[in-house]
Amino acid sequence: MTTAAAYALSASDGAFEKVTIERRDLGPRDVLIDIKYAGICHSDIHTARNEWGGTKYPVVPGHEIAGLVAAVGSEVSKYQVGDRVGVGCMVNSCGKCGPCLANEEQFCNRGATMTYNTQVDPAVQADGYTMGGYSTQIVVTEHFVVGIPEGIGLDQAAPLLCAGVTLFSPLRHWNAGPGKKVAIIGMGGLGHVGVKIAAALGAEVTVLSHSLSKQEDGKLFGASHYYATSDRQTFRELRGKFDLILNTVSADLPIDDYLKLLNLDGTLVILGLPENPMAIKPFTIAGYRRSLAGSMIGGIAQTQEMLNFCAQHGIGAEIEVISADEIDGAYDRVVASDVRYRFVIDVSTM
Ligand code: NAP
Ligand code: ZN
Ligand code: ZN
């Protein structure tokens, strides 16, 4: 076992504390990573505060991990000591089922092993639950490690491991590109990366934000249009306009109002994951043959493709780097939508 420093929460209303955790011995296919940066995703907050239920405490969140390879097992062929690497939301899956064989490990029929808060054999993680990236080191089987291309700083790359692929995957699946009108609801951690990627894919991008306060940034990230959803006129003006709408909002939304903004055969994809059900009117979705869909991160091969795409197009996340003792305050600011646009923990401060 290797010991690592980590920041853990021991109750939903607690504060983060520095702890020591154990990482398993290197197996033949394992990679030991010295974590340099860990992004703070809103899913970390939903989990840490037990908003989805089922959180096992103490929890060490973090699934936007960027660092350097510190050691490799005897059969590892993809990586060498010193390589720049990342780990996203998953650290294992069965490898044999249909979705795994189709490179969609996130939909593994046996349930993918998520980077934190997933029950595992105590031989894998001493406490019986995976522990995430708010930590100095992690051991991950090589298939679930991706390479971070030169040209993206590790700090700006970290958020791409979840936010980047969560937007890249549906943009690819629903063929965002030239001639397509794409709207992104919410310009936070996920949304701002989505604007950059959708614009780089050649789509005409519109941001639907709850205010106009980030309008200038939206244009810099590549959006052609920017509307405030607090203004009812937005919904009248944009009715029937979009081929694809990606909803990244972490809170409850009147989703039926947004469905009406889809054109014929348009699709609204749910990415944001608040805990409450949503109401839709059958007439809204029947009209214009609209679709309501969802998407969950992306597979490992697609995560690598996304990183290569971002490096090629000069895309990184816009970040605010914090020290490990600032996580609690950062969580409050994310919930208040007061972040430009992702907090990233500098792990050297642990
Ligand atoms: P975030 O940085 O907090 O961004 C969410 C954005 O939603 C905010 O910036 C804000 O954008 C908007 N928003 C927040 N509260 C709102 C409210 N009350 N009314 C209207 N708009 C509001 O969060 P994130 O890290 O991007 O994550 C967003 C959601 O996606 C979370 O629920 C997270 O769990 C989920 N997620 C899902 C996946 C997946 O695979 N499906 C992956 C990662 C995360 P504006 O200020 O522009 O309005
Ligand atoms: Zn995430
Ligand atoms: Zn599987």
Account of the protein in words:
This protein has about 350 residues and is an alpha/beta fold. It has two domains: about 1-160 and about 315-350, Medium-chain alcohol dehydrogenases, catalytic domain (Quinone Oxidoreductase, Chain A, domain 1, Alpha-Beta Complex); about 165-295, Rossmann fold (3-Layer(aba) Sandwich). The protein has helices spanning about 40-50, 100, 155, 165-175, 190-200, 215-220, 230-235, 255-260, 280-285, 300-310, 325-335; strands spanning about 1-10, 15-25, 30-40, 65-70, 85, 90, 115, 135-140, 145, 180-185, 205-210, 225-230, 240-245, 260-270, 290-295, 320, 340-345. Strands 3, 4, 5, 8, 9, 16 and 17 form a seven-stranded mixed beta sheet that branches. Strands 12-11-10-13-14-15 form a six-stranded parallel beta sheet, with helices on one face. Strands 1-2 form a two-stranded antiparallel ribbon. β16 (about 320), α11 and β17 (about 340-345) form a beta-alpha-beta unit. α4 packs across α5 and α4 (about 165-175) packs across α10 (about 300-310). It is globular. It starts with a strand and ends with a strand. About 50% of the residues are buried. One zinc ion binds near residues 41, 43, 63, 89 and 162.
General form: globular
Strand-residue proportion: 25-35%
**Topology as H/E string?**
EEEHEEEHEEEHHEHEHEHEHEHEHEHE
Mean pLDDT across all amino acids: 97
Can you count the beta strands?
17
How many DSSP H or I helices?
Answer: 11
